[in-house]
Amino acid sequence: MSGVHTDRGSRGEGGVVGDDDRRTVLFVVGTRPEAIKLAPVILAARDRTDLKPFVLSTGQHREMLAQVFGLFEIVPDEDLAIMKPGQDLFDVTSSVLLGMRDVIRKHRPDVIVVQGDTTSCFVGALAAFYEGVPVAHVEAGLRTYDLAAPFPEEANRQLASRIATIHFPPTEGSATHLRDEGIDPGRITVTGNTVIDALLWVRDRLSSAASGADAENDLVTRGLSALHTAWPQIESDRPYVLITGHRRENFGGGFESLCQAIADLAGAYPDWNFVYPVHLNPRVQEPVKRILGGIANVSLIVPQDYAPFVRLMDGARFILTDSGGVQEEAPSLGKPVLVMREKTERPEAVEAGTVRLVGTDRQTIVAEAKRLIEDADHYAAMAHAHNPYGDGRASERILDAIAAHLAGESNGSPADRGKPDSGTGATAGG
Fold it and tell me: Is 279 a residue of the active site?
């Protein structure tokens, strides 16, 4: 990378290294999705003899970050704690940039890992670039090529790609985007998506909790207990649809339309339950409560920790969402997904058949949901489509590639690791 400093200082002078020869990998984590997707990489790095993980929390999502860190038993080494009431993109950008300057200069990491397309991701990469530290971008290469959808994520990830030294696209399609943009193929490693690693980790602990054997991580048990308190109907025999919606580009008319579609479905299918963990953003809360509050078979519950949310996904008949992460996770659970967005940067699941784009048009959402409810063959075709997002080994591929880069080798996983088999990816359903 042009401009990378070579005088990182003698080992042992910074706050991170000193008593061993491991190279320090600083992970930038700002939001709940980043925490979920980087947690398995951080856990895997702990077990290595050549790399030392250092976790920087920007605090872009304060409470939701703490939930995920607690689940995976991760304690951040530094916390910028930037979150404040009413913050906007200007606040987040400037606070992360200034905070990271001080952390990088104090600890002098060997490489900085950013994930996805959040403001913390882009600004973390920018701060690393300013300080001459190589950047590894996890979940690189996702594109819609429309800077307004999703906003600001599409700009964030494109800008991060311009800065990154090594790139970890989850799929071959994402890697193609990077190569088409002129990025050196030798700096690209297709890894699969780390969210599958996280999902399988949580699924195993949910199974242990269900059998009463999970004494080592009672956060899972407490999370499930909180879910039962928030929504006791999860134990009923009635089928349910899980709903998530919070995208900034849907605020306004689009969000009103999708809420009205959910109300239509609840009225048409009174024997079905519709459960919606409602994001804390007031611009989400207001239309959701106004349109859906008081409908008998619609349950508006508080946002759930990751483990109980996986339980909700696993028990749902299908999922209505505008979330990017759910598009990746649900195929591993055999759950059809209707995506309430006009465009997706994750076309692989659409191509595989497990995800369908329905936008925010009220009639389209209702029509596609009715097909899943009433047409058993259509449901089976979507539910049994393969997972294109990996096999649960993305974390080791990422760390192997980082270690190889730091050792001065050509970027890429060792040959015996190979690429994830997108046709036979692991499924949490066994």
Answer: yes
**H or E segment to which residue 239 belongs:** none
CATH code of domain 23-193+391-406 = 3.40.50.2000
The residues pairing with 276 across neighbouring beta strands, listed in sequence order, are 300
Check whether 240 has a pLDDT greater than 80.
yes
- Report the DSSP pairing between strands 273-277 and 135-138: unpaired
**For residue 13, pLDDT beyond 50:** no
Given a contact cutoff of 8 angstroms between Cβ atoms, the answer to whether 358 and 338 are in contact is: yes
Whether 154 is catalytic: no
Beta-bridge partners for 137: 114, 167
Alpha-carbon torsion, ordered 306, 310, 315, 321, to 10 deg:
80
Give the integer Cα–Cα distance in Å for 274 and 320. Answer: 10
Asked whether the predicted pLDDT for residue 64 surpasses 80, the reply is no
Q: What is the pLDDT of residues 287-303, one digit of tens each?
A: 889 999 999 999 999 98
**Which residue among 153, 314, 345, 391 is the active-site one?**
153
| Radius of gyration of the chain from its Cα atoms, rounded to whole angstroms | 21
Per the annotation, the verdict on 246 as an active-site residue is yes
Higher pLDDT pick, 27 / 226? 27
Q: What is the pLDDT of residues 129-155, one digit of tens each?
A: 999 999 999 999 999 999 998 899 999
**Mean pLDDT in residue range 64-81:** 91
Give me the residue spans of the domains in the chain. 23-193+391-406, 225-383
Select which of 246, 346, 397, 405 is catalytic.
Answer: 246
Residue 13 is a catalytic residue: no
- Out of 279, 371, 378, 417, which one is annotated catalytic? 279
The residue from 78, 79, 117, 328 that is catalytic is 117
Quick check: is 117 catalytic? yes
Mean pLDDT over 95-102 rounds to 96
What pLDDT is recorded for position 49? 96
Tell me if 23-193+391-406 shares its fold with 225-383: yes
Residue in 11, 248, 283, 417 annotated catalytic: 248
CATH of 225-383, one of 3.40.50.2000, 3.40.50.1980, 3.30.70.1130, 3.30.70.920: 3.40.50.2000
Count Cβ atoms below 10 Å from residue 280 Cβ, excluding itself.
12
